[in-house]
Amino acid sequence: xxxxxxxxxxxxxxxxxxxxxxxxxxxxxxxxxxxxxxxxxxxxxxxxxxxxxxxxxxxxxxxxxxxxxxxxxxxxxxxxxxxxxxxxxxxxxxxxxxxxxxxxxxxxxxxxxxxxxxxxxxxxxxxxxxxxxxxxxxxxxxxxxxxxxxxxxxxxxxxxxxxxxxxxxxxxxxxxxxxxxxxxxxxxxxxxxxxxxxxxxxxxxxxxxxxxxxxxxxxxxxxxxxxxxxxxxxxxxxxxxxxxxxxxxxxxxxxxxxxxxxxxxxxxxxxxxxxxxxxxxxxxxxxxxxxxxxxxxxxxxxxxxxxxxxxxxxxxxxxxxxxxxxxxxxxxxxxxxxxxxxxxxxxxxxxxxxxxxxxxxxxxxxxxxxxxxxxxxxxxxxxxxxxxxxxxxx
Length: 394
Description:
Layout: E1 10-12, H1 16-32, E2 38-44, H2 45-49, H3 56-63, E3 69-74, E4 84-91, E5 94-105, E6 108-111, H4 128-138, H5 142-150, H6 153-174, H7 189-195, H8 199-215, E7 219-221, H9 231-242, H10 247-267, H11 272-275, H12 278-295, H13 300-312, H14 330-348, H15 360-373, H16 386-389
Parallel strand pairs: 2-3
Antiparallel strand pairs: 1-7, 2-4, 4-5, 5-6
């Protein structure tokens, strides 16, 4: 299993699969051309159907701005993966290079015909069951497991993750105005924070703050994706206000959260286009539940219960962004998931980890199969659900 750095990518919103991934693809293709005079980019599947709202064309335009190019949205052609992008270069009208890219989620890409760039294997285990057995046998907790295999250098990266999350919240809480796009949505985080009468109100404000920053293309931490980037930072800031944990403990909690996200990515999916929003916000909720459970001193068995509760009760959640924008229902959904993460911890404190019937590994397997069973209109295409029934008013 790869490093948790791959879960905590830092970049610009609003979508890891629709902006960060296509930007990498465009950069890679640009590096390969020689004397060509034109580039054509064709977007398929979810990239075509929701690319406008996700700013896919904008990020490609910015990446290729010094080179003549065109961007085609092909909404009809079916491809094997829903996030497929084809780049072609021409010299005096003659095709010179044709490359197929797939944005697989979390900002990662795969290039057809090339050996995938596989991140270095860091962990010898790939399921929670294996990790739990190892930790019990070696008398260590989950954060110690992460540090054992990642080394002390991961602390420096987690420190960067922590500060990036905090900065996104602070920007979101201090900014007013409208989100970009035609939906004409007012930013709400600042007002929610000021008007909030309880710490739980503030938890929601924190989630809105990061999600609104993401929607505006601000710098955020994928946790595990841009669209779900508000959940973990909100619970982290909430823990600072309610528990006042030591800084080292906070970094430990982030390590545990990253480990859970890594397991879901390895055994299921973190891509909304592949498995619906259960893969994005559901995973984020499980990561946040793991963070909060560790911060509160729960053991491995109870942390597993909190994470499987968080993920299990997102099973079947569709990804149906209205008009392709990562705004409705995405921003509100981040706030709900942040509250659910805390609730999952609370429930885990009432349960007996020795009497578990449903494991995290089982829920991961279920989530992947459920995602495959969900029809494509509910997997980040804006063709079903709220995206279908919402009637836009200018």
